[in-house]
Design a protein that fits this description.
It is a single chain. This protein is mostly helical. The protein has a domain of 69 residues. Helix content is 80%, strand content 0%. The longest helix has 32 residues. It is flat. The mean pLDDT is 87.
């Protein structure tokens, strides 16, 4: 499978929404400055959320477990390589997000 072409296409099409977002944000901020409004209204408080860090940590652990299990399935079963890796990455990534959801819900209930 030719990964270079796939990565190039995905990269190209992911940059288009980013550029549109940045141009729109620039126009919006420029209009606020022209009206004499404060730009700090657009900037929210930047705080490091413990839950957000936990979410990404659990997700990355789930993806790593998916890659590991996919490798084991590829080596010891007759399952196709792509199927083994992708199915396990999505399965364990989804499970990781469900685990995070249950942890976040319990934390919200205690607050």
């Amino acid at each position: 499978m030719e990964w270079t072409g796939i990565v190039a296409i995905i990269s190209f099409f992911s940059f288009i929404p980013i550029i549109i977002f940045l141009v729109h944000r620039h126009k919006e901020r420029k209009a606020l400055i022209e009206k004499g409004m404060d730009i700090s209204l657009l900037q929210g408080e930047k705080k490091c959320s413990t839950l957000e860090s936990l979410k990404y940590g659990i997700l990355l652990i789930g993806l790593a477990a998916g890659i590991l299990i996919g490798n084991i399935l590829d080596a010891y079963t007759r399952l196709n390589e792509e199927v083994a890796y992708f199915s396990m990455i999505f399965l364990f990534g989804g499970l990781a997000l469900l685990i995070f959801y249950s942890i976040a819900k319990k934390q919200q209930e205690t607050e």
